Each structure stands twice: as C-alpha cells, then as structure tokens.
Predict the structure.
Amino acid sequence: MPQRSLKTVKHLVLNGFFWSITNQLSLILIGLAVSGVLARLITPAEFGIIGMVSLGTGFLNVIKDFGFGAALVQKKEVHDDEYSTVFWINLIIGFLLCALVYSLAPLIGHFFKESRVEPVTKALSFTFLLNAIGIVWNNKLIKAVAFKQIFYRSFLSTIISGGLAVFLAYRGYGVWALVAQTYSNIIINTFLVYLHIRWLPRLTIEKKYVISLFKFGLPLLADQSINYWVRNIDNLLVGRFLGKETLAYYGKAYTLMLLPVSQLTGTLTKVLFPTFSMIQDDQAQIAEIYLKISRVIALIAFPLMTGLSLLAEPLILIVYGPQWHAAVPIFQVLSLLGMLQAIAALSGDIYLSQGKTALMFKVGLVSKGCMIIGIVSGLFSAGLMGMVYGYCITSMLAFFLETYYLGRLIRLSLVKILLNIAPYLGVTMLCLVLAACGFRSFHFSVLPDFIIKGLSFALIYLLLCFIFRLDALSDILKLIRKR
C-alpha cells in the first residue's frame, strides 16, 4: 500500500478516536442521567416487563439483516444495485419479523406468566419494520467512515428520546414511556442518517449479489446467534425461574456495567471495521493498529470498571435510588467482567475485515458453549450470584481462546497480545489495593462518598501511569495535542 494511503488510514483511526471518545463520554452521561430519572419514576416490575419482551423478541433482532450489512462494509467496492438488493431484502425480512412477533405475543406473555407482556410485545413488533428501513443507510454511513455524523445522530436521538421518556414517565405512563423511548430513538436516528446519506434504492433485487452476501453473512449470522444466546440465556433463566423483579435488578446491574464498555468499544468497532477492511491485505499494519488501540482501551477500561466495582454501592444508590440496592453485589462482580469485554469487543473487527466469518463461528461455537455451561450450572447450583460467578469465570476462558485465534489471523502470539495489556492490569490492581486500604478510614454520605473516592481513585491511577510511563497514556496525550 502506498505511503500516502497508510497516512490516510492512520488519520482515519486517530480522527475516529477523537469522535468516538466524544461520543462515548456524551452518551454515558446522558444515558446515566436518563436511566437514573426513569428508575425513580418507573417501578422495577415495569422495567422487568420490558426485559421480558426484549428476551422474547431479542433473537429476531440478531437475524434482521442476515449479516448483509457487515458484508457491505467489508467489501472494497459495492455497486448501487447491491445496496438496493439488500435494502429490499431487509424490508421484506422486517415485515415478516414484525408479523411473527405480533402473532407470538400471547405465547411470550404465557411463557413469562405476565399478562402485560402481550400488549407491550405487540406494540414493539413494528420496530422491526422501522429498523429495516434504515439498515442500508446506516451501513453506508459506516462505510463512508463519517465519524462526526455517528456522534451527532447518536447524541441527538438519545437526548430527544430520553427527554420524551422522562416526560411520559412523569405523567404516569410507566412501561409505555419506555416503549415511546424506543420508537422515538429509532425514528430520529433513521431520519438523521437519511439526511446525511440522501440515497434511495432502485426497484431491483439481483440474484448474483444475494449469493455472495449469503456466503459472507450466514457464518456471521450463526456466530451472532450464539453470542445472543450467551448474552441472554442468563436473563431468560432469571426471568423464568426467579421472577420479573429479580430480572429487573440483574438487568439494571448488567446494563449499568455494559454502558461504559459499550460506549467505549461500540463506536470504535464501527470505526475499526471499515478501516481494517481498507487495509485487509496488510496484516502487519492491522496488527500494529490493534495493539495500539487495545492498549488505549485497557488504559481506560481497566481502571474505570475496577473503580466502579469498588464504588458500586454509592453508584447504584445515586443513579437508581435505594429501591435498587439488591443490584449492588451483582454489579460489583459484573464490572470486573466488563474489563475483558472491552478488549474482546475488538476481535470481531479482525475476523470480519479478513472475511473469516466461518472461523469466527467455529471459535464462538466452542467458547460461547463453555459460557452457557457456566451460566446454567452456576444458576442451578448456587442461585443468582452463582450464575454471575459462573458467567465471569467461563468468559475469561473464552477470552483466551478467541484471542489466540485472532492472533493467528494477524500473526500475533497470544503471549504478545496479553503482554501488551498486562502493564495496565498490573497498575490497575496496584491502584485498587492502595485505594481500598485508604478508603477504609473515610466515610461520607452517598454523593460525596462517590465523588471524593472516585476522584481519589482516578488521581492515584493517573499518578501511577506517569510513574510507570505507560505507552497508551503518551498516545492519548499526543492525540489531544494534535486535535
């Protein structure tokens, strides 16, 4: 690849980092604020109803585009007729899924033994049709690597839909405020993407494109299906055997844990996938970028998730209120799992950019199967917390397996990948020990306790980073100076 192209790739990644960090910080703050207000206006039982509906219909969200969207991003060149083909196929799939969910609503309500699940499921069934309209537009935006637009549309749609949900919840609409939040987010997001893309499909479905898309998309769909059941079998079992309130506590703890992780890695993966696809033949360049980005993620995610685990009780009380105190021990353990998930989220971009969806499926079949065993055996042997610990332990084993095969694709050994992030784990653990020992002597009311101890933890960590001269900190400081 010419030198100029390499500079372009580096510029895209650096620029993507800037807008990703901006996007993540904004959405974390907005998400916590909206979620905190709603948690005080809507009961745990009503959140549990939405959780049950999501469990009953969530798998269909995985198969809504059969992996065609990722296939469009991975390909170096995409014809306009190919975009049109995917658009109409997605619309047909969306219509069929909408009809399926609507018809299955009574069965979903019966499974969870909750009468209010049926009408909410019927109401949310039409989101499949709305989502289908914007899939191609969204993938065109990602393929164009339009980082600013990703930030703007996420920010605006989150603000407006969150404000609407809070208003309706305040007026006493309960679970329907959450339904309105979902619809408004989809509609605003789709409209803003269209305003930027300004593309409409032709009336055509080309068979030759469908065949090539299926070849890439079906293994990806299979892997995503396995991943879905791993991420949701815990919720499914909790909802079925422990009830809607326990499901709400678990769901809130998991969502709060996932919020910083998903915002840290979610936008980055959208940046990295198209970027890696541009240089898919240059494995050395991909390996260099992967190591640098995983260091930066470790620098941020490791102390962030460890600090949140340490301060779980004041955080839960501040964000959700005292009625959610039962979520504290769940959140403490899951936060440590979030450290691994932040790094593991990068692996999918490597597999996809190399077109190795079949390998990704095979590895996922083993690793995710192991995680399912840990979740099920933990729940039935030691209850809710047994399931949480089983999930975390088997996730660690799965991380090593998936990272090993990822390294083989870009000629990196597992040892080199682990050593790349080991200093950040070591500094984080040292910071945890120092902070935990120091915090024992000080006790404040809830909000001052969280702020003072949180800032103290952050300052100790930054000091240790400067003392040990961690590379990722230098990378971030250079990026800030360039911006």
Summary: Residues 357-409 form the longest helix (53 residues).
